[in-house]
Predict the structure.
Amino acid sequence: MTTGHVYIATTLDGFVAREDHRIDWLNAYHQTGEDLGYDAFMESVDGLVMGRNSFQTVLSFGFWPYKKPVIVLSQTLASKDIPETLPSNVEVSTLSPTEIMADLKKRGWSRVYVDGGRLVQSFTRLGLIEDYIVTTVPILIGRGCRLFGELNSDVHLECVSTAGYPSGLVQTHYRVSPRSPIQ
């Protein structure tokens, strides 16, 4: 079975980006030098599935940070919208979350990094996420794109671990509980 996994940062008030999708509030915390387990997480996944807004945000970095395959789920982008400078393992798909997970299973993927606020929400509502690693940044921005949106039913989580860092970051790893109704 192919499983979805989230590794993401949020503000203390629960936003993953500003309303215009900027993540400038996160920049100061990239410089801390603290090992938050990102490299180990990336080693554990076969590739990424991200939403269009996250893809466009990453493109604004000026460099491509991923060596693993990346699939951008979008109903508005096409293959021609992928810059030629990106690796050949970046593709666009119009499949639904359920369909992409079935497709990735056929490709031999077992663990998928799901990235992007709206995409995480969609995958969560469908019960396609196995666990969440959420790093809370000690900043309040007041409004923006929430990590979690409306749900059809409760999703029960079990805390696997929590770690605090000198910078003020707090990282919590949650696993979806077997008692969650959507699992």
